[in-house]
Amino acid sequence: MKGGVRALGVAESAAGDRRATVAGAVVRADRTFDDLVLDSWTVGGTDATRTVIDCWQRLDREDVRYLLVAGIAPAWFNLLDLHAIHEAVDRPVLSVSFETSEGLEPTLRDAFAGESADCDERLDIYERQPPREPVEINGETCFVRAVGCDPGTAREVVVAFTPEGGRPEPVRVARLAARAGDDFARRGRD
Asked: InterPro entries annotated for this entry (predicted)?
């Protein structure tokens, strides 16, 4: 992949009580940081998909070819709908996670016991998403869900944007920016 190819990585800081800071970082395949947007989404809410789309639109970067998100269930199961994001941004969307999992269905049922509408909505979104595919990078394994490209292309994208370690640079930089934004906001409240 050419060094000038750009991807937007979206990640959150550790979720706070009600809101989690979200960052979108545009990074080139040659590791050059190119742009940044900050936002937030609701812990336990249903606005994560809309927030990712808003970040994309606010950046207004036609040169970005891929969108990578950290995981699929940020901020206490504020599930990302990769299909809806792909439809809105018209680019391949890849969800990258870093831990093995048997799936979220049992956890969602436990977390939203007694709240059937909330549980059903989340299960519906979760069940529509593509399966996770393991990708070996630099001696580590990550798991990728892809909408808008085949698993082989998704693997190539993740490998190209991960020059070392196991986290693609756009997601790694976005997580750092979200943490810094969260820290700044917290210090401003003290």
From this structure: Endo_dU
